[in-house]
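User: Hi! I'm working on a homework problem where we have to compare a predicted structure to a textbook description. Could you give me the structure for the chain below?
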Amino acid sequence: MTEVKRPVVAVFGAGKIGEALLSGLLHGGRSTDELVFTERSAARAAQLTADHGIPSADVADAAERADVLVVAVKPQDIEPLLDELAPVVGPGKLVVSLCAGLPTALFERRLPEGVPVVRVMPNTPMLVNEAMSAISAGAHAGPEHLATVEELMGVVGKVVRVPEAQQDAVTALSGSGPAYFFYLVEAMIDAGILLGIPRAVAQDLIVQSAVGAATMLAQGGDHPVTLREAVTSPAGTTIMAIRELERHGVRAALIDAIEAARDRSRELGAAHDQG
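Assistant: Happy to help. Predicted structure tokens:
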């Protein structure tokens, strides 16, 4: 039986997310000769190669070697990269964008006609193979391209398909979502210290509570309201805490915060509308 050749993957921009994807692909069974990356810092590139055994290359060489081109640079760095990619992206390449806020139309406008582009919004739990990634097809991407990206991102977490019109909302919810949880945990640890519990103990208490609560949400299938009500006894401690949260408008503030993140994602894309 002839072995099916897997596509070579190039990651353009080996920051934390780019490195996490490369590491995840290695642990998922990819060999180092199926991977390549670009990195502007020569020192960081050398360190990544030493750590993972994956070769680095310049943009043109990486684009020539690879079948799947994963763009993982910051949004403000996209224009120079697209300038370098445009002359070297040939037929049969799949471009995957991990750039927050940037629409597939930007890539399609700047790259050769017909290049398939898939937009992905991952998040930082990719670093521990627990990412939540939402993917959307551009104008020239078909089901086979989405399937390729699902397989690619599936090695570092869970993947869902969404219409691209929802990607700014996804960015606000799950892309930025881990920061909201970290913020809440930080506040709860501070509360523990205020109540006289040592910081290390407070952190253990809160972090394990967060892990347990997340596991119940992920595995139990119950609605969050049901789970919260199970902890909330009449005239007990929890309902007193919930009353204070509602009195201070925590729910409304969180909704406003997520809307603000959505709006900023839209602004990032709009900044490149005429690029």
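For your comparison, note the following. The beta strands are 9-12, 35-38, 68-71, 94-97, 117-121, 131-137, 157-161. The mean pLDDT is 94. Good luck with the assignment!
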